[in-house]
Protein 1
Amino acid sequence: EDTMLRSLFLDHPESVGESYLGHARFALGFGFWLIVAGLAALVHAVLPFAFKTTASTILRRLHARIDHRGR
């Protein structure tokens, strides 16, 4: 049972070269910026003059973080 719990919580973080806490920090930060990008896009949908490039800029930065992760 201990091995199964360890596997559930650590297999994926270890597969991307991170500890559990390091992976949690990365994922929480990533999720936060996805929410910010989503909110900017929603506002932009109604007010096209607002946040013209905010969502796409955030998404490009997040993509770069994923691409350079663990290098």
Protein 2
Amino acid sequence: MTVADLMILFQAHYMKTNLAPNTYRGYLVNIKNHILPYHADKDPDELTYTDVDHLVAELHKKGLSN
């Protein structure tokens, strides 16, 4: 399983049933534009704190907030 696969499961089993429509759309945008470009092919079990920290640093460089 990859991070992309996990995001598909997250969308199908959590997001669609637990989020308001605008929140759902926002999550989809953030996943597509910010998470998947960096980590789509990684195994979630092998994702490290450093991987996530680097992603956050890259997003901050783009002017995005937490």
Protein 3
Amino acid sequence: MKLRYFAWLRERIGKAEEEVALPAEIVSVADLLAWLKTRGEEYAHALEHPQAIRVAIDQEHADHAEPIGAASEIALFPPRTGG
């Protein structure tokens, strides 16, 4: 599965995208965010407040309870700011 990171998430993690093989127990967006936080200090820092992270599964915005299913791409975005 391809993971894509945008804005300051990309900067904190240090990459724009990566291919990962998810463990079988990762079934929802919330599971994915929790798993990513365990992958290193840069991920833990970037995902310090996972509830604020916006997610798209195959280019469709998704809730954190959303099942990942057979997604080919998941994108992570920081919350919107500005005016």
Protein 4
Amino acid sequence: FVIPLELNRSRYVQALEMRFDNSQAVHHAFTLFDASSASRDLDRDDPELGYDGMDAGDFATSPAGQFISWQPGKVPSKGTPDMAFRLNPGTDAVLQVHMQPTGKPEPVRGQVGLHYSDTPPTKFPFKIMLRRIDIDIPAGVSDHSVEDSYQLPVAVDALAVLPHAHYLGKSVQAYAELPNGERRWLLRIDDWDFNWQGDYRYAKPIHLPSGTVLHMKWTYDNSTNNPRNPFRPARRVRYGVQTTDEMGELWLRVLPATLKDREILYRDQQSKLLAEVITGRRLRLAANP
């Protein structure tokens, strides 16, 4: 759903809040932003209100270094002015809502609240992503695991963590292996529930020196003993964006010490993500030449 913000000047968003009156029909949602006319064009070309699809498009993006999502029960963060993000005139908000059927027509009303700061940001967080896109879980297996790791090229302070998987998710573990050999836990969920997921903000930032290796491990249960398994009997499940596919991701919101360090981190992460995209395209070609 494309929402013109009608800004007459640049504004700095300290916090963003989403509310929905029908959590039975809305599983989760994101607020993205588009400074072009691309989302408006997609909305205009779709006969219904808004436009359809699991992909909001190339121009509707999440602000850099921000976790902006809504799940039932989520408490929004008040944010801080020093890590606000900028919106320029001509920008539209794009509310991406992932619906789920209840068996009958459902009215849904959503609200987006933008809480502005009067001062520009002085700190610029960054999102690190660990993930596996070569997920391939055999039918009937109750303890299938995938792992990913990433070595930090610069020192950062970890601010928050966001895990993501689907119905077969069983558990997730994330920890940091420091250069001195010390292990620091970042997240551990032993009983993953697809219906309750979001980001977790650390009470105190966790300092991670340069050379720290981040580790992620997801475990899946693709057996009929998993009450959340959407298939009876169980069937092979691979990576994909539909809820009946599977995913394994872990996002870490971090704060580099300087803008130069942030640029180093950005370039290093882009190399990792490019390699993953190539792997994903090869897997898609192999599955469907």
